[in-house]
Amino acid sequence: MSLRRILTVDKPADLQVLKQVCAPVAAIDEDVKTLAADMLETMYDAPGIGLAAIQIGDLRRVVVMDVGDGEPDDASEDAEPARNPMVFVNPEILWASDELSTYEEGCLSIPDYFDEVKRPARVRVAWLDLDGQRQEREADGLFATCIQHEIDHLNGVLFIDHLSRLRRDRAMTKVKKVMRAKEAA
Q: Do 23 and 52 contact (CB within 8 A), yes or no?
């Protein structure tokens, strides 16, 4: 496993990649499994709760997530949820509710910027696991928001694309300023 560089919207070449549509994975082989392991390591290191392959420059339809819904390691009330890493190969939304929910979203490719986004409150998603088995799950809450956000990435859509033009421009300005400050430090 190795850490990969996460592409960010402040770099024109990175943004050009992030706006592309990813290709389906034809076969789940060792290369895809290594990609997924690298993505999980990169996501946890960032730290984040989701990462699409395109965010590290790989144009395959692979997503990793961990929304902290694992069983706690112990029974105490303040126990942290255990890690629950999930890998989605060729994920697709089969159904989305008419009911919407609003979550404050952030993105590893849009550092230090958060904004509210409305999305369907519930979705049914299908994907292949790393054994090549088709899985389906109905999701709500943070899981539903995160999987929609990551599938958007696979289709070249960033969460700021769901915002008004004014808020999207404000986000880009803030990210560029933050990244310049980080580079100067």
A: no
